[in-house]
Amino acid sequence: MPEQPEQTGARRLGAAELGVEPGERATLVQFSSAFCQPCRATRRTLEEVAAMVEGVAHVEIDAEDNLALVRELDIRQTPTVLVLDAEGHIVRRATGQPRRVDVIAALGRAVA
Questions:
Q1: Do the Cβ atoms of 92 and 111 come closer than 8 Å?
Q2: N or C: lower Cβ tally within 10 Å for the chain?
Q3: How many Å separate Cα 17 from the centre of its chain?
């Protein structure tokens, strides 16, 4: 996952922002768009990793339908993946199609 600087002071993301309940241990948030080919592969990778780790949820957000949140979080391209800890704080942020091993490593920081 090519990392970007974390957002310091970013507010917590919860069910109101995500549209669903976050994971008990961590949440993989994916910002996608309808015609984004790498988004499809990213979805599969994140779903697989979430299924492997108990208490981890994968949430996909359509960037075009959630422009206010996209602007607030400074999402500039799809796919963008945010890794949230149990409290909903962003602990990792990456753009582009991630490798499974990188997602697992990022989750390690969120659930530690």
A1: no
A2: C
A3: 12
Query: pLDDT of 66-111, one tens digit each?
Result: 999 999 999 999 999 999 999 999 999 999 999 999 999 999 888 8
Model's pTM, two decimal places? 0.89
Residue 11, both tokens: 């507010």
DSSP state string for the chain? --B----TTPPPP-HHHHSSPPPSSEEEEEEE-TT-HHHHHHHHHHHHHHHHSTTEEEEEEEGGG-HHHHHHTT--SSSEEEEEETTS-EEEEEESPPPHHHHHHHHHHHH-
Instruction: Give the number of other Cβ atoms within 10 Å of residue 37's Cβ.
Output: 9
Residue 34 has which token pair?
Answer: 């309808």
Instruction: Return the structure tokens found at 60.
Output: 């996909």
Q: How far apart are CA 50 and CA 72, in angstroms?
A: 25
